User: Fold this.
Amino acid sequence: MGKPGKSPPKPKRDEHVVVHDLVKRYGDRIVLNHISLKIMRGQTAVIIGGSGAGKTTLMRILIGLEKPTSGAVFIDGEDISPLGGLAMNRVRKKLGMVFQYSALLDSLSVMDNVAFPLVEHTKMKKLAIRDKVLTMLESLGLQRADATKSPAELSGGMRKRVALARALMLEPEILIYDEPTSGLDPQTSRMVDDLIDETRERYGVTSVVISHDMASTFRIAHHAFLLIQGEVAAAGTPEQLADCERNRVSHEFIIASGVAYDRLSRPPPANEEHELETSKPR
Assistant:
C-alpha cells in the first residue's frame, strides 16, 4: 500500500465517495498518478476520458477489485484501501454495479437475472423475491411478461433496464455505471441518460458514471472529472470544463468530441458549488 504518510482528512458527511492522492502502478507503469476527487451524496458524477486514461482501473479500485499502490478511497466515510475480503464484502453491499453491455446471463430468464443478488446474498423466500423483482421491473418501465423472456429477446434499452433492476435489488447507496451508453444509438443513449437521472431521484442514490460520452456527461452530470493519462486534468461542472478561459485542455477535449454542449439539457443545479480544479505538476 505504499509508505505511510500524513493521514488524509476525514470526509464530510455529504462527501459520499472520496479518493485521496491515489496512485496505481503496474511494475514501472503508472496508471493513476495522484488522483484526488470528491463525489457528493445524492448527485451524479461522471468520470470522463478517452481510452487508456485510467477510468477502468479507477472503477475497479472503487469497487474493491484492485488495491491502490498508495492513497486512500473512502466510501461513506470508511477507507476501503486496507480492507480484506470479508470487510470488503460488507462495503460492497452499499454499491450497485451496472456493467458495460449489461452483462446479463443469457442462460437465465429476466426474472432469474434480477433475482440473482437476492438468492445469493439474502434468505428471502421465493415468493417474496418474485414480488420484489416484478415490482422493480415495473418501476423501471418493464412489463410483467418481460420477466419470462431471455436477455436475447430484449432490445438494448430493455437490457439496460434489466441490468439496473438487478443492481438495485440489494438497495445500494451508490450506483456505478460502466460505459452505460457504449454501443447504443443516440435515441437509446438518451433514454439511458434519462433512466440514470430518474433512478437517482427516485431511489436517492449517488451515481458514479464511467464514460467517454461527452454528450451524456452534459445531460446527467452535476460534477465531472476529466482523466488524461492517469491524471485529473480538470474537474467541475460540465459548463466549467467547457470554459476555454478556465481550462483549455478540457475545452479542447469537448470540442474534439463533437458535442454542441450549448444545446444539451442539464440536470438541476447541485446543492453545492464546486470550483474548477486542474492537476498540478509533481
User: Anything to note?
Assistant: The chain is about 35% helix and 25% strand. Confidence is low (pLDDT under 50) at residues 272-282. The first helix runs from residue 55 to 62.
